[in-house]
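Practice problem 4.
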């Protein structure tokens, strides 16, 4: 039986995001961009434009210096580099 495709959802805390763009630059699927919304800091936080294309790699969440991003839909957290080569 074929597995159902996994859908991930990227959540950003608009008020914590400082619009540094690291998540956008590091997304392998290029599905992140600056939104048109303006937060209380006067910045445009990141948004995901295609949740169906998200592969759940956590690149965005791991690189965010403000810890403003969460990825949901994961059954388990992917193994980190240190754990696989340990």
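Answer key:
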């Amino acid at each position: 039986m074929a597995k159902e495709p996994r859908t991930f959802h990227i959540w950003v805390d608009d008020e914590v995001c400082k619009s540094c763009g690291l998540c956008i630059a590091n997304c392998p699927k290029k599905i992140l961009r600056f939104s048109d919304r303006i937060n209380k800091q006067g910045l445009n936080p990141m948004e995901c434009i295609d949740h169906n294309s998200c592969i759940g790699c956590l690149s965005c969440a791991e690189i965010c210096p403000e810890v403003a991003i969460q990825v949901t839909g994961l059954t388990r957290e992917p193994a980190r580099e240190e754990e696989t080569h340990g």
